[in-house]
Every structure is written in structure tokens, then in C-alpha cells.
Design goal:
Layout lengths: L1 E6 L5 H14 L3 E6 L5 H4 L4 E9 L2 E2 L1 H9 L7 E8 L14 H10 L2 E9 L7 H8 L3 H11 L5 H15 L1
Parallel strand pairs: 1-2, 1-3, 3-5, 5-6
Antiparallel strand pairs: 3-4
Protein name: Flavodoxin-like domain-containing protein
GO molecular function, one term: FMN binding
Pfam family, one: Flavodoxin_3
Length: about 170
């Protein structure tokens, strides 16, 4: 089976998870790891399984990932899974899988099987801390707790969980 793990990453969080998924996929399949900007819709059509990774930006998939999903070509029998990273430990009142709606729609449109969404917390780039803290209205103490919780993420446990997700998708 041919597997493509592709991702958009600005801070390295999504890239780290992409590499973990790729390592799992490469154990038993022909697998490639590529940045999203290095993959054309025609090229993506040549794989049996697509793993597509995105950070969440303002509670949405990154714009380049949405564009990629919209440009995918029909491919009956192909499978797709999504993986996302986010700075918050959870989004209150929302299931993380809700962020996968664009991937689900792309699968439905193109005759592909949607295999699920893996998510994990990542570390928010330092340059964004003040803006995000103010946007979500946290005081200094609450923000310090948030920073402590995201420091070091994604970690080895997150990578192992990503590999377990990949194994489930590929079995």
C-alpha cells in the first residue's frame, strides 16, 4: 500500500506528529513524508492512504490545508485521515473531530473513506503568546498555567499516540 503523510506546519508541532505517523506507516508500507506545499493534487491521487496534517488557526484548519482538501481529485477506494495540533488542551464544548469537517466533506465529494482525526496539544509560538492571551481573555496567572501545560508538547507520549492512530488507520 502507498501512503502519503503530508502536513502544513509553521512552528514544528504538526511536523513532529507527521514524522511519527510516517515512521509507523513506513514499517509495513511504501510511505512518503512531504510538506504540503510539495504535493500536487495529481501526485496525491497516486496514494492509497493520505494522512493530512494541520495546526488549528483560530479554531480552523490552516488555510493551505483547506485549499488542499478542496483540490483533491476523486479516487474511489482511497482512504484519508487527518491529524491536527493546537495550543489549548481542549476546546470547551467542542469535540475535536468537528474540526475535521472539511476533510470529511472532501472524502465524501471524492469517494474516499474518512478514517478519523488525531489531535494533540502543541506549543504555541512565543511570538503569539500575548495576542492569544488577550484574545481569550486570560489573566497572567491563568496564562502561565496554560504555557506550563503546553511546554514540551507534542511529547513522546503524543508521538506514540500518533503512531497508534496511524496503525489503526492502516490495519
Amino acid at each position: 500500500m502507498k501512503v502519503l503523510v503530508t502536513y502544513f506546519s509553521q512552528s514544528g508541532n504538526t511536523e513532529k506528529i507527521a514524522k511519527a505517523i510516517y515512521e509507523e506507516a513506513a514499517k509495513a508500507h511504501t510511505a512518503e513524508l512531504k510538506k504540503l506545499e510539495d504535493v500536487s493534487p495529481d501526485e496525491a491521487a497516486g496514494y492509497d492512504v493520505l494522512f493530512i496534517g494541520s495546526p488549528l488557526h483560530s479554531a480552523n484548519l490552516a488555510a493551505p490545508v483547506k485549499e488542499c482538501l478542496g483540490a483533491l481529485k476523486p479516487a474511489a477506494g482511497r482512504k484519508m485521515a487527518l491529524f491536527i495540533t493546537h495550543f489549548a488542551p481542549a476546546y470547551p464544548g467542542q469535540e475535536m473531530d468537528e474540526f475535521a469537517e472539511p476533510a470529511k466533506a472532501a472524502c465524501e465529494k471524492n469517494g474516499m473513506e474518512y478514517k478519523g482525526c488525531f489531535d494533540c496539544q502543541g506549543y504555541l509560538a512565543d511570538a503569539l503568546h500575548e495576542m492569544v492571551k488577550n484574545k481569550i481573555g486570560l489573566d497572567d496567572e491563568a496564562w502561565a498555567g496554560m504555557v506550563e501545560q503546553m511546554t514540551g508538547r507534542p511529547n513522546g507520549e503524543d508521538e506514540a499516540n500518533a503512531q497508534a492512530f496511524a496503525k489503526t488507520v492502516l490495519d
